[in-house]
Design brief:
- The chain is mostly helical.
- The chain has 2 domains: 171 residues, no CATH class; 282 residues, Farnesyl Diphosphate Synthase.
- Helices cover 77% and strands 2% of the residues.
- The strands form 2 sheets. The chain has a two-stranded antiparallel ribbon.
C-alpha cells in the first residue's frame, strides 16, 4: 500500500491520530504566520487551479528549495566545518546517526519527510522533488535556519492535502473520460431489452444493473489497454496513454468495485453470481489469450474458448440478469442466456474480421491492431491451417519473431484477406448469430423482441 493510499485508509477508518490531521496540525499551530497561508494556497491552487495552478505551486516550491539550499550552503561556508563536522552534517542531513535511521524531532523535517513518501505515489516526478524537500527539512536540525524549512513544510502539507482530493477527482476524471468515450452500449441494452422481452415494465433496478454491465465492460477495456499498451480507444487516446498504467488500473478497479457494490445493494444472489461468473471468465480469457500470444499454432477451439470467456460471458450475464429481474421461468432465462452467449461470440468474430478490413476512422482504433499486439485471431488461424506454403511459413516466422513492423502487418493483412480468412470469420460469426436469433422464437412478438433481432442484424453488418 502506497503512502497516500495508507493515509486515505487511516482517514476513512477514523484513525486520525496518524492520519491527515496529524500532518496538518504543525502547519495550523505553527507560530510562524506564513506556514498556514502557504498550506491553504497550496491546496487551492492544486485542487482548483488546474495544470497552471499545479505548475505555480511546483515552481514556488522549487524557488523556495533553491533559496533555502543557497542559504544553507552559505551558512556552511561561513562556519567552514572541519572534515569530521562535514561528515556529521551529511549524516544528519540524510537522517542517520550512528548507522541507524531516525527522524529529527522537528515538525518541518517530519512533515517534509512524510510528504516525500506520500507525494511520490501521486506524480512520478514528485519523488525527487520531495526528497529534496525532505533534505531541506532535515537541514533545519543541523544549521538552525527555521524560516525557509518551515515554509517548505507548510507548502508540502498543502500539497499532501491537495493530493488526497486530486486522487479522488482524478479517479472520477478517468472513469468519466472512459465512460464518455462513445461505444455501442450493447451490454446495458441487452440487459434492459432482455428484461423487457420478458414483460418487465422498467424501473430503476433495471437501469442500475445495466450500469453494472457497462461499468464491468469499460473496466475490462481499461485493463486490456494497459496489458496491450494500446494508445487509442474509440478514436481517442486511451486512459493508459493519457494517465499512465498506475492511474488507469486504479480506475478499472474502481469500476469493478463500484459494480460489486451495486450488485450487493441489489440483493439478488442469482444476478450477483451471473456477473461474478462473467468476471472470473473474463479474467481467465485474458490469461488464455496471453498464453497464445504470437503463437501461430493456436487452434480454432482454443480461440473460441478465449472469445467465449473474454467477450461472450458478459453478453450472456447481461441477458441472464435481465431475464432474472423479470421473474420468468428457467426455460426463458436459459434461452436468453444462450442468446447472449452466441451473440457475444458472433460479435467478437466480426470484430476480429474488421481488424483486417475496416476503415480506421470508422473503427475508432488502428486497423491491424490485433496483429501489432500479438493476438492471433480467427481470420489468421483459418489461413494458417490451410495447405502449407512458403508464404505461410514466412507469415509464421514473422509472428514468432516478435514486434511486427507496419509493412509486415500490411503483408499479413493481404495474405489473410486473399486467403479467405476474413470471409471465413464472417461466415462463422453468422452461424453463431443465427443460433442467437433462434433463441428468441419462444418469446412473443413485441418491440423488445424486434429490437433484439435487429441487434443480431446490426452485429452481422456492422463496420465499427
Amino acid at each position: 500500500m502506497s503512502g497516500l493510499d495508507l493515509l486515505l485508509f487511516r482517514v476513512i477508518n477514523r484513525d486520525l491520530s496518524n492520519g491527515v490531521f496529524d500532518l496538518l496540525m504543525p502547519a495550523v499551530t505553527d507560530p510562524d504566520p506564513f506556514v498556514l497561508p502557504f498550506a491553504l494556497v497550496g491546496i487551492g491552487l492544486v485542487v482548483w487551479g488546474g495544470r497552471k495552478g499545479r505548475l505555480v505551486v511546483v515552481m514556488a516550491l522549487l524557488l523556495l528549495l533553491a533559496s533555502n539550499a543557497v542559504s544553507e550552503l552559505f551558512k556552511l561556508w561561513i562556519q567552514r566545518p572541519r572534515p569530521c563536522q562535514a561528515l556529521e552534517a551529511v549524516r544528519v542531513l540524510v537522517g542517520c546517526s550512528g548507522g541507524s535511521f531516525s527522524f529529527p524531532s522537528s515538525h518541518a523535517a517530519n512533515i517534509t519527510a512524510q510528504a516525500a513518501l506520500f507525494a511520490s505515489s501521486y506524480r512520478p516526478w514528485a519523488l525527487p522533488l520531495f526528497l529534496v524537500a525532505a533534505v531541506v527539512g532535515y537541514s533545519r536540525v543541523y544549521v538552525g535556519v527555521h524560516y525557509p524549512a518551515d515554509v517548505v513544510g507548510g507548502v508540502v502539507v498543502g500539497l499532501i492535502c491537495a493530493a488526497i482530493f486530486i486522487r479522488l477527482r482524478l479517479e472520477s476524471e478517468v472513469t468519466t473520460y472512459c465512460l464518455g468515450g462513445g461505444g455501442k452500449r450493447v451490454r446495458p441494452a441487452l440487459l434492459l431489452l432482455s428484461a423487457r422481452v420478458c414483460g418487465y415494465d422498467g424501473g430503476e433496478r433495471g437501469v442500475d444493473l445495466a450500469v453494472v454491465a457497462e461499468f464491468m465492460h469499460v473496466a475490462t477495456l481499461i485493463h486490456d489497454d494497459i496489458i496491450d499498451n494500446a494508445q487509442k480507444r474509440r478514436g481517442q487516446p486511451s486512459a493508459n496513454a493519457r494517465w499512465g498504467p498506475h492511474v488507469s488500473v486504479l480506475a478499472g478497479d474502481f469500476l469493478y468495485s463500484h459494480s460489486i457494490q451495486r450488485l450487493v445493494s441489489d440483493g439478488d444472489f442469482r444476478i450477483l453470481k451471473a456477473f461474478a461468473d462473467a468476471t472470473v471468465a473474463m479474467t481467465e480469457g485474458e490469461i488464455l489469450e496471453l498464453r497464445w500470444h504470437r503463437n501461430p499454432d493456436i487452434l480454432y477451439q482454443d480461440y473460441l474458448t478465449v472469445i467465449t470467456y473474454k467477450t461472450a460471458a458478459l453478453f450472456s450475464a447481461s441477458c441472464r440478469s435481465g431475464a432474472l429481474i423479470a421473474g420468468v421461468d428457467e426455460t426463458r432465462v436459459e434461452a436468453l442466456t444462450e442468446y447472449g452467449l452466441n451473440l457475444g461470440i458472433g460479435f467478437q468474430l466480426v470484430d476480429d474480421a474488421l481488424d483486417f478490413t475496416a476503415n480506421e476512422e470508422i473503427l475508432g482504433k488502428p486497423v491491424g491492431n490485433d496483429l501489432l499486439e500479438g493476438k492471433v485471431t480467427y481470420p489468421l488461424i483459418y489461413v494458417l491451417h490451410q495447405h502449407r506454403s512458403p508464404e505461410q511459413d514466412e507469415i509464421r516466422r514473422l509472428l514468432c519473431n516478435g514486434q511486427l513492423q507496419q509493412a509486415e502487418v500490411e503483408r499479413i493483412r493481404r495474405y489473410v484477406t486473399e486467403g479467405g480468412g476474413v470471409r471465413a470469420a464472417v461466415e462463422e460469426a453468422r452461424n453463431h448469430l443465427r443460433k442467437a436469433r433462434e433463441q428468441l422464437v419462444s418469446f412473443p412478438e413485441t418491440t423488445a423482441r424486434r429490437s433484439l433481432e435487429m441487434l443480431v442484424d446490426f452485429i452481422a453488418e456492422r463496420e465499427w
